[in-house]
Design brief:
single chain, 287 residues, Cytochrome Bc1 Complex, Chain D, domain 2, 3-stranded mixed sheet, 10 helices, 12 strands, 33% helix, oxidoreductase activity, acting on a sulfur group of donors, cytochrome as acceptor, heme binding, EC 2.8.5.2
């Protein structure tokens, strides 16, 4: 099936997204991501979780919606521009910081011990708060290392989250949405289907109703977050989930929420749950 390219003004985009009939387009190819000549293979299609019944027939990795050149970058760790930041994150992991004279490795040993962490984030902590990976990192820094908290969108934080995420590469996303996580999940779901801004667009208008379409220069995916943090070619930098949320809401011409806000944590949980079953890809490469 040929993909349809649509180049529209903001008003026309709003009209398109208001159409009641979905224009979902199945990717022409659903090849796995073969990394480092077969060292690791990541499936790009997964069954939709039960809570998405009627919303998505299958889950498709955002990698399938990228051009061949961008796809190729992600298949080779030497060509993936995000991997240099992974190396920097590993260095930070092993470097003591703060008055306690500890590093991350002082408690957790090698960063390989973080295998599986990315697949279950965000996660409710022992006090019943929904925390993103960034929260857990800063909690360790301030309480155990007696170091300053890192800026949510600062380079050191993004490097650390990238380095930790890579340890789970290939593991299926499996965030909890029941028990104490349920109220946060419901809040995130409500946000996902709420129209924002002057354009009156919801997350679902792009990523559920119109994935596979082209809007301006953007090839819409299903909006899964299993590849975060991503190296975004447009920005020539790592991009965190909350930064991407902020950009999407800003594009609706609305006032957005701060990164690290309770609202974005809830949205992060719901969006992550939509990708339950897809393998962790981070660090992925996107436009």
């Amino acid at each position: 099936m040929m993909l349809t390219q649509i180049r529209l003004s903001g008003l026309a985009i709003a009209c398109l997204m208001s159409w009641p009939v979905a224009a979902q387009t199945v990717p022409e190819r659903t090849d796995p991501i073969v990394i480092n000549d077969g060292e690791l293979q990541l499936e790009t299609v997964a069954p939709a979780p039960a809570h998405l019944e009627g919303a998505l027939p299958e889950l498709y990795s955002g990698w399938l919606f990228r051009d061949p050149g961008t796809q190729a970058m992600q298949t080779d760790d030497f060509e993936n521009p995000g991997m240099i930041f992974v190396d920097q994150g590993v260095d930070d992991w092993n470097t003591p910081d703060g008055e306690a004279g500890k590093s991350c490795a002082s408690c957790h040993e090698g960063i390989e011990s973080m295998a599986g962490v990315r697949a279950v984030m965000p996660k409710v902590n022992a006090e019943g708060q929904l925390w993103s990976m960034e929260d857990y990192i800063n909690d360790c820094r301030t309480n155990r290392m007696q170091a300053e908290a890192l800026d949510w969108n600062g380079n050191r934080m993004k490097n650390l989250t990238a380095a930790i995420s890579v340890q789970s590469r290939g593991m299926p996303m499996n965030v909890a949405i029941d028990g104490p996580a349920r109220p946060f999940w419901e809040q995130g779901k409500e946000m996902y289907y709420t129209r924002y801004g002057q354009l009156q667009l919801a997350c679902a208008n792009c990523h559920e109703d119109h994935y596979g379409d082209w809007i301006r220069a953007d090839h819409l995916s299903q909006g899964h977050t299993n590849g975060f943090p991503v190296y975004r070619l447009k920005q020539a930098a790592l991009v965190s989930q909350h930064n991407r949320f902020r950009g999407c809401i800003r594009d609706t011409r609305a006032e957005t929420f701060p990164m690290g806000s309770d609202e974005f944590r809830a949205l992060e949980l719901y969006v992550a749950s939509r990708g339950n079953g897809l393998p962790v890809e981070g660090v992925s490469v996107r436009h």
